[in-house]
Amino acid sequence: MNVFSNEPYFDVDDQRITYIFNPSTLLRTTCDMFFKYSLHVDDEVVEKKYLDMYFNCSISNCDLDLKFTYKHIHSKSFDEIKVNPATQIFSASVAARMCLAMNSGILPTSALPTINFINSMHELFNIFNNPYKNITPQKDHLTKMTEFFKKIKVINDFDNSDITRDVNFTNGWLVSISGLIMLWETLKPITNKEYTLRTHWLNIDFLDNWFDKVKKHNGNEFKPTSIQFVRTFKNLFYQDYFQYFPRTTCSKDFDQIICEMNDQPLSNNIFNVTHPQKQNLFKFSPFIIGTVDYRHLKIPERNSLPYICGYLMNKCLEKHICEICINYAYCQKSLDQSFLVQFYKFHSYSVNSTCSELLSYQDNFQDYIVKLDYIFELSFPVVSIEDNVGTQMKDCLSNVRLNHPCNLFDRTFLLNLYIRFKIFATIKFLNNSKMSEEHKLVDSQIIS
Q1: Where is each Transposable element P transposase-like GTP-binding insertion domain found (predicted)?
Q2: What is the pLDDT of residue 414?
């Protein structure tokens, strides 16, 4: 990205994007450097040996913080990617206990720079891990840490060589601190005194969760082989790519991004895929439907059409509801009515399925979906390998008309929702079929 501490940003089509590194990754890397090398600032030296001395003394005196264990200072390879051990080491409680040990004569006074470093890193991570308010204590500590990282030297004690230029965590912190300050100054939230920057959202570390899956998939193996890693990646990708996890903290944000990603004009540069021989413009305009809950529908193997039709009618009634629409839905006896009971029960409209003017509409909703399915099955294999799949499918399906008695019924929404749902369901089915075929092939090879 070519970002630097004095220019923590990059430009895309005259739009300035401020860059802040993942604070969790920076903290882990800082902890790793602290464990491996000594850190020199002016005449002070920060060394891990004082942390080891404190740990050993605490064990002998039975005065060890329960959150600070042997595993924290002797981490294994996979533990090094986790942020929790780093936050337990760079904590105010550890710094306070080490300071108490120094004042009691258990630790030498030369441990003071290490104690101050642990406490300073705790405060720095807290600034990024909590809503940033640009208050004086936060600004003063950012200034202090900026000077610290500019002066720091990383020394390899094995040969006493200076490896400061070979490490990246110092520049990462400098860029992130400058980026945070620049982002606040750019937004200038002077009118709202309660305004905060939610920088702690940057700390959601998906890498930790993903490596946990790799470990569990390989029997909690800490160092999977390259072959195991590739096989596991393929397996997890096929399993999770189209999975929906309702309990994840970011699912709603991700859904909103998918549904509203074309609110801003698309940049040609962002979606340009350049090839040595040719240029291919990859550009799309997603349909706005406001919902993606179809991703966790449990579609039955039998009578799936009434179930899907009931779901589609349900989402349409959520967009617009009136007495005509309620009666129309009630007339559709072929629909799965379990989706529609809530509308019949909680709305004051009178349900009258025997209205003579609605008898002609009986079951025409399912007939409409059947016609869409027929055209989709013919067109999708051809259109799926081209650009703008959704738009092309909409062109193919727009000629199918739905005869609905209500003029306010949103036919465009219904068609957009159908296309989004159908593409998702088709790709998910093909992925599941592909996985089943691969499993059968592996089983046959093992048997043979």
Answers
A1: 38-130
A2: 92
Instruction: Specify which of 87-101, 288-302, 338-352, 432-446 reaches the highest per-range mean pLDDT.
Output: 87-101
The separation between the first and the last C-alpha atoms of the chain, rounded to the nearest angstrom, is 51
**CB-count exposure of residue 217 (10 Å: 0-12, 13-18, 19+):** middle
User: Sign of torsion, CA 117 120 125 128?
Assistant: negative
Percentage above 90 pLDDT, the chain: 21
Check: CB of residue 336 under 8 Å from CB of residue 311: yes
Report d(CA 209, CA 189) in Å as an integer.
Answer: 35
Q: What is the rounded distance in angstroms from the CA atom of residue 197 to the CA atom of residue 130?
A: 9
pLDDT at 19 over 80: yes
Position 276 pLDDT exceeds 50: no
400 neighbors 375 (Cβ within 8 angstroms): yes
- Which token pair is 71? 């595993």
Per-residue confidence band for 444, with pLDDT thresholds at 50, 70 and 90: low
Greater pLDDT, 378 or 281: 378
Contact 300, 46 (CB under 8 A): no
